[in-house]
Design a protein that fits this description.
Helix content is 42%, strand content 11%. It is built from 14 helices and ten strands. The strands form two sheets. A seven-stranded mixed sheet has the order 4-6-5-7-8-9-10, sandwiched between helices. A three-stranded mixed sheet has the order 1-2-3, with no helix packed on it. Strand 1, helix 1 and strand 2 form a beta-alpha-beta unit. Helix 3 crosses helix 4, helix 3 packs across helix 5 and helix 7 crosses helix 8. The termini are far apart.
């Protein structure tokens, strides 16, 4: 929760407050509730008195502009799911999932809970472009074709160029691209390459090269010939790279390959020596202080250590701090992708590749991933270093804008020079 002291006569909405928080905080840290208070209490020496504020009551809650209650049993069930996932006391059918504090991970959890509760499997496209209970209920009332294969789903329409294909995240989703797509104009439609949600099929082994082949089959069914434009963030960048490598090796034109802050060889980094790690720590620390401040940085490290202590002796997927809020199915899906990345030995690629890296690196990471990618791209790696960290480049408005501008410019500059296949 958050406490707000408005200026005299100022009328603030929940949407405005969430948007202001989103400019400074990652999605998981945006408060779920906002309360109006006349002033922030202080101690006798003039410092903020957090204890007195909490003991004095929560003040007057800010309400959403218009609350539309659920109108039937389906909408009541969906509102209940959102309330549990987002920690909200009340959800209306026209409230936006992401303005209520949702993010791509919680959206995937919502889809899994909808399937468990209502027996219907939906894809993340139901959250785009409108992420409301009313829109979700509308999809559930319509027949949905189920598939356990890689599929292509439209993310953004418009433009006359050949499509840009964005590869899914480690969670099998592309909702983390939502804010980027709202900010960027690529002059072409954008599609997401979506892997199945739920338990793996008989061929669900951790094999990134096999995942790339299956994704290429789906891609070429939709667009038989190149040039192709591919991009992906983190795990998606690794899969986009392997897809592009296989396509080019087979003689297909790939006009653009965009790797968005993807680290390569993470499993090898885990065996680095202590001296190198501490050198990296002192080199990266000032950037983290400027980005999060002392309290934010220390609080995050303590939260990771507490989680690792509580989960000692459990399987590695349960010990992952990033996976701590996932339910079992989504955690297993994500861990299959982790294993695929760890087992993957990337081969050199022909042609140009773009790397868009965050300037703020993980504290103990001794080198920038661009150094490794250069060894795999003999024809030239183009590097753009951008503000923010691995996550904030897709969550903070100013950093999203920087990435959107750089990505659109790179696509425009490279595509014109590649002939059609």
């Amino acid at each position: 929760m958050a406490f707000v002291v408005p200026r005299p006569g100022e009328r603030l909405t929940v949407a405005q407050l969430r948007s202001a928080c989103g400019a400074e905080l990652p999605p998981y840290a945006i408060p779920s509730e906002f309360f109006r208070v006349p002033e922030l209490p202080k101690t006798s020496n003039g410092k903020f008195n957090r204890k007195l504020l909490m003991e004095s009551g929560h003040g007057e809650p800010f309400e959403s502009e218009v609350h539309v209650p659920p109108r039937d049993e389906l909408e009541r069930t969906l509102c209940g799911i959102w309330q549990r996932l987002l920690g909200q006391a009340r959800v209306g059918v026209e409230d936006d999932f992401f303005l209520l504090g949702g993010d791509s991970i919680r959206a995937m959890q919502c889809l899994l809970e909808v399937e468990a509760t209502l027996g219907r499997r939906l894809t993340p496209t139901v959250f785009m472009p409108t992420a409301t209970v009313a829109a979700l209920a509308k999809h559930l009332r319509e027949p949905v074709a189920e598939s356990n294969a890689v599929s292509l789903v439209p993310l953004k329409s418009g433009g006359s160029g050949r499509p840009l294909y964005l590869v899914h995240s480690i969670f099998g989703s592309f909702l983390h691209y939502r804010a980027l797509l709202e900010s960027a104009e690529f002059g072409r439609p954008v599609f997401g390459i979506q892997c199945p949600v739920g338990p793996p099929g008989p061929n669900g082994a951790a094999d990134l090269e096999g995942m790339a082949r299956a994704s290429i089959d789906a891609l070429r069914t939709f667009q038989p010939s190149g040039p192709y434009a591919l991009a992906g963030h983190s795990f998606g960048g690794l899969l986009a790279y392997e897809m592009a490598r296989q396509l080019r090796e087979s003689g297909h034109a790939v006009s653009f390959v965009g790797i968005l802050d993807t680290d390569v060889g993470l499993h090898r980094e885990m065996r680095r020596d202590v001296e190198t790690s501490f050198a990296a720590f002192f080199r990266n620390l000032p950037l983290h202080f400027r980005d999060r401040g002392f309290r934010g940085l220390v609080g995050n490290r303590l939260a990771i250590l507490r989680h690792r202590w509580r989960t000692r002796g459990r399987p590695p997927q349960d010990r992952s701090f990033e996976f701590r809020e996932l339910d079992l199915d989504l955690r297993h899906l994500a861990w299959r992708h982790v294993e695929a990345a760890r087992a993957y030995a990337p081969k050199p690629i022909q042609g140009e590749v773009w790397f868009f890296g965050a300037k703020i690196r993980p504290l103990f990471r001794p080198r920038n991933p661009a150094e490794v990618w250069r060894t795999l791209v003999p024809d030239g790696l183009r590097v753009e270093l951008l503000p923010g960290n691995h996550f904030s480049m897709l969550t903070r408005p100013s950093e999203i804008a920087a990435l959107a501008t750089a990505l659109a410019r790179a696509i425009h500059n490279t595509e014109a020079s590649v002939p059609s296949a």
